[in-house]
Specification:
By secondary structure, the chain is α/β, with parallel strands linked by helices. The protein contains 13 helices and 12 strands. It has an 8-stranded parallel barrel with strand order 1-2-3-5-8-9-10-12, surrounded by 5 helices.
């Protein structure tokens, strides 16, 4: 089975760089990635961070659409509870038109409560807001005017224009983390994102919940699963280990410091464990750094054990790896890893 290879960007600001330089560097990398042959580009949504400029992924995605011609353009993810769903439907449909049908509509709730505090939204409402937003957006992409009376939103006889380029609408993929979310999304039948931040034994159990819920709800097949994981590829094994080390551990430390924004005890425990994790353990369980041969072997294992159909690879985890090394890593990926799965 063919594996989709996507690259994940959160437009990290490198030390000493300006915000304008960050936009230029990331757009340049994305353009180079398309030329090198990656399948898709995925954009995060990051709020209130001094280390990222990617707070408006739909706007950035529109720029990506005009700079590229072939790659799929995904959101990983649009945090639906933070925005008016009618406006999201309009803007996403506009992006789908601009890109001539290349939008992948990735959605989720986010696991950081500070986003919700900043927008003055109660995180305990996030699940209900998410489901209502999904209902509004899919209705808005239909061919007829619609009305909606919900817990958080009410619309009367509205017709969203433009409609999406793709029919009936762009593919929808949902980020999953908690056991409840795996089951809920399985019942709804959507493809999902999973993340290497969750330990692999837990991922296996939660994927069973997802697939069981899909089956019980009458959806065909095991479901489409994409794994988001940091990756770095070098022709030299020692360089593959050492070149991304400082940036990787910078990001691990930053993630551990977000414990005050954890939405639940499970997330808090996971972040607490990051305080004492070693780089060797990170290499074994959290990232995919290695030679092309080692990375191929890891992907084959994920394909067999998790049943993944695609990868969303963060090639500059922590954002501090020099640009020329990131580009070489992407080149190694496209020339020596991807052909093994096409």
């Amino acid at each position: 089975m063919s594996i989709e290879f996507g690259l994940f960007y959160d437009f990290d600001i490198q030390k000493g760089a300006t915000q304008s330089e960050t936009f230029r560097r990331c757009f340049s990398q994305i353009e180079a990635s398309e030329r090198m042959g990656v399948d898709s580009i995925w954009l995060a949504e990051v709020h209130f961070s001094p280390f990222s400029v990617l707070s408006s992924p739909l706007i950035v995605a529109s720029s990506v659409a005009t700079r590229t011609s072939r790659v799929r353009i995904g959101l990983a993810v649009q945090v639906l509870p933070l925005a008016n769903p009618l406006r999201v439907a309009e803007e996403a449909a506009t992006l789908d038109q601009i890109s001539k049908g290349r939008l992948e509509f990735g959605v989720g709730r986010s696991g950081l409560t500070r986003y919700y505090r900043g927008y003055n939204i109660d995180y305990s409402e996030s699940s209900d807001r998410f489901l209502e937003a999904m209902d509004v957006i899919t209705k808005a992409w239909g061919n007829q005017p619609f009305s909606h009376e919900g817990k958080f939103y009410a619309f009367n006889d509205v017709s969203v224009e433009p409609k999406p380029y793709q029919e009936p609408h762009p593919p929808i993929r949902v980020a999953t983390a908690s056991a409840e979310t795996f089951s809920m999304v399985g019942r709804l039948g959507y493809p999902i994102f999973i993340s290497s931040t969750t330990d692999e034994p837990e991922l296996k159990e939660r994927l069973k919940l997802y697939r069981r819920a899909r089956r019980d709800a009458g959806h065909p097949g095991p479901g489409d699963v994409m794994l988001r994981i940091p990756a770095y590829v070098s022709e030299n094994a020692e360089k593959a280990r050492t070149e991304p080390e400082a940036s990787t551990m910078h990001m691990i430390g930053y993630s551990a410091a977000q414990i005050g924004s954890a939405p639940n005890e499970e997330t808090a425990d996971r972040l607490q464990r990051l305080n004492t994790i070693s780089y060797d353990e990170v290499l074994r369980h959290k990232v995919m750094h290695g030679t092309p041969e080692e990375v191929v072997e890891r992907i084959q294992r994920y394909e067999e054990e998790l049943g993944i159909s695609g990868l969303v690879l963060e090639m500059n985890f922590g954002g501090q790896i020099p640009n020329e090394l990131v580009l070489n890593s992407i080149r190694q990926l496209t020339e020596k890893v991807m052909p093994e799965f096409k």
